[in-house]
């Protein structure tokens, strides 16, 4: 059982937008602005998408955006493309020696 | 090209030990700390801890068993994860990951470069 809760699946058609939620507690997501998001294609290392709640590293398309409200963070993928089909993971700092991941959400592009 | 290259898959008997390597390339080894993350079959990612690539000081996630040890060999610019007294529940893909440094800080708690993963299977 993962520390952060994500829906197991999400889907959308090409061109549409989809939002994936990530729910924690007042001790992690609610306490710190250190939420990150990753895209993971099986067999590869995860790809870094978002850091510090809503910041994109260089090279990440602006189709990927994120936010946080209270104990819940969200990732929105706009203009869905076939290559966006992957597993998505959130993570949050939870204090000293605590970094929590979500259970992952499998995004299907219909 | 900046990358982390990990050692190959391992199949071990219960009770044995394994050492997974993680070798950075394309950047200076001791400028970014290395984290370890694992993914058990069918499960999500789990953060295991990190090692300071300057001092060699490891920091382990709360609750991580003492059977897991992070180390460095600076002579070959490589980080290692050693697991002793292997159990079936240690079966997982183990990743090393580089901490992300923004323009202002390395305390982002995010990981920008990941190794390709090392599958460790424990079975008799």
Describe the protein.
- The complex is a heterodimer of chains A (110) and B (124).
- Helix content of chain A is 0%, strand content 44%.
- Chain A is built from no helices and nine strands.
- Chain B starts with a strand and ends with a strand.
- In chain B, 0% of the residues lie in helices and 48% in strands.
- In chain B, a hairpin with a 4-residue loop joins β7 and β8.
- Chain B is mainly β and 124 residues long.
- At the A-B interface, β3, β4, β7 and β8 of A face β5 and β10 of B.
How much of the sequence lies in strands of chain B comes to: over 45%
Class from secondary-structure proportions of chain A: mainly beta
Q: If you compute it from the alpha carbons, what radius of gyration of chain A comes out, rounded to the nearest whole angstrom? A: 13 Å
Sheet with the most strands of chain A? Answer: 6 strands, mixed
User: What is the CA–CA distance across the termini of chain A?
Assistant: 28 Å
- The biggest beta sheet of chain B, please? 7 strands, mixed
Shape of chain B: globular
Average predicted confidence as pLDDT of chain B: 95
What class do helices, strands and sheet pairing of chain B give?
mainly beta
Strand share of the residues of chain A? 35-45%
Helix content of chain B: under 10%
Quote the distance from N terminus to C terminus of chain B: 39 Å
Global shape of chain A:
globular
- The low-pLDDT segments of chain A are none
Secondary-structure element string of chain A:
EEEEEEEEE
List segments of chain B where confidence is low: pLDDT < 50 over at least 5 consecutive residues.
Answer: none
Average pLDDT rating of chain A: 95
Count of helical regions of chain B: 0
